[in-house]
């Protein structure tokens, strides 16, 4: 059995009860450590909390040569831990498909994700979001055209855009909200943006403002997330005014 276990958003307590049970019952526990991470707990805390040794997987271990994981799943119960919700990244879908081809039973234990947190913390309505995009570290000087096209395409239809901020865990680099705002300003726009910092923690910070103002602010420790709103329903506007810091 290969179980994809969502750890939730922030620390060891963000997981579901079912997810924690699966980890404690597993014969082998792996942590996928390159698409995202928990902002509030390190690997040592996870091991202590679950009473398990956890082997860290890099990109190659999942996408190129997953034999170690698949062989372990043929022998016993395997839990692969993933920050957020397991099947947001296509790399995890690919691994599940590989397991299925080999006749290995799989299951998905869902966790809270950035996309649901974005709705919950801002009050924006889930069905009013369009295609998401990512602001990457590279190239430094100019954003890929696809980023602008995605946001502007959503805005033309009145839809909000969930904007993921790039992370490079192996380099301990996590893009911050002000950096993302500055990059987006580089395409000549000063949209309204919403920065969400440390979703899932006891004290998340949510700030609404023009990109120019957001680019000059400090949102504290990562992880950070951004939303570029489209057309706002009156209830969404009321929620932003009530539940976020406004800097318009």
What does this structure look like?
The model has no long low-confidence stretch (mean pLDDT about 95). By secondary structure, the protein is of the alpha/beta class. It has helices at about 15-25, 45-50, 60-65, 65-75, 90-100, 115-120, 145-155, 175-185, 210-215, 235-245; strands at about 1-5, 30, 55, 80, 105-110, 135, 160-165, 165-170, 175, 190-195, 205-210, 225-230, 245. The strands form three sheets. A six-stranded mixed sheet has the order 6-7-12-10-11-13. A five-stranded parallel sheet has the order 3-2-4-1-5, sandwiched between helices. Strands 8-9 form a two-stranded antiparallel ribbon. Helix content is about 35%, strand content about 20%. The N and C termini lie far apart (about 50 Å). It has ten helices and 13 strands.
């Amino acid at each position: 059995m290969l179980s994809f276990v969502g750890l939730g958003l922030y620390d060891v307590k963000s997981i579901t009860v079912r997810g924690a049970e699966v980890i404690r019952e597993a014969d082998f526990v792996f942590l996928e450590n390159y698409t995202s991470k928990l902002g509030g707990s390190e690997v040592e805390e996870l091991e202590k909390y679950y009473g398990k040794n956890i082997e860290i997987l890099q990109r190659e271990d999942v996408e190129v040569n997953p034999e170690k994981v698949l062989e372990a799943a043929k022998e016993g119960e395997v839990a692969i831990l993933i920050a957020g919700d397991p099947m947001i990244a296509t790399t995890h879908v690919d691994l599940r498909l590989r397991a299925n081809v080999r006749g290995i039973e799989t299951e998905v234990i869902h966790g809270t994700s950035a996309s649901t947190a974005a709705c919950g913390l801002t009050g924006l309505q889930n069905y009013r979001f369009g295609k998401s995009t990512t602001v990457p570290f590279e190239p430094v000087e100019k954003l890929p055209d696809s980023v602008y096209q995605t946001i502007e395409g959503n805005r033309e239809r009145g839809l909000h855009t969930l904007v993921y901020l790039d992370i490079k865990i192996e380099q301990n680099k996590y893009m911050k909200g002000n950096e993302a705002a500055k990059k987006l300003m580089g395409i000549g726009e000063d949209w309204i943006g919403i920065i969400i910092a440390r979703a899932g923690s006891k004290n998340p910070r949510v700030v609404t403002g023009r990109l120019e103002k957001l680019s000059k602010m400090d949102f504290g420790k990562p992880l950070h997330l951004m939303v570029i709103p489209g057309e706002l329903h009156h209830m969404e506007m009321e929620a932003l005014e009530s539940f976020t810091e406004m800097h318009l």
